[in-house]
Amino acid sequence: MCYKCQRFGHSSRNCFLKPRCVRCSKDHDVKDCDRENNKIECANCKKAHVASFRGCEARIQHVEKKLHSRQTTVKTPARISPNNTPGYLRTVTTGGPTYAHILAPPNPTSHHIPQENPLRITDLKDSGLETTMGLIKQAANIFEELKKLKIPEIITDLQKMVRELNTASNGFDKISILYNYAYLFDDTHP
Description:
By secondary structure, the chain is mainly alpha-helical. Helix content is about 35%, strand content about 0%.
């Protein structure tokens, strides 16, 4: 219920309607209500109660209408068999423990039953873990090399050089500036 206009279906935060008093149903805010001169009247059903009364007939009708307007259809899933399941949804079972089973916290009410095919470190090596770890190490080495290049310092020096070239008045000054910043273009520059 909106506490600004006293209508149902929205809140006062999103209300752009004229205010109606919760006490007397007149077109003013409740803080401006002169209760002594006005009798209490619901803004929705015009009976002798405030508009926020939970037993208001208009409110009850609104709630019932809202409940009945909701469609409560539940679709039952079709029976799935291995023959009509798409290939990308099929799982391969190996008889060993699953990843989720290994990581699950122990259940105090169940007893551990040893599996016939326990997961071994060699299985992880064969699964590509070593390859992944090698790639991570290579990426870390690349980032270390990039840190050594001092790219921010080089960019700052290039910006200085461009500013000086733009202010140079003749070709000799420009050649002199390029000579001073030649280290930026040297392959051996750290």
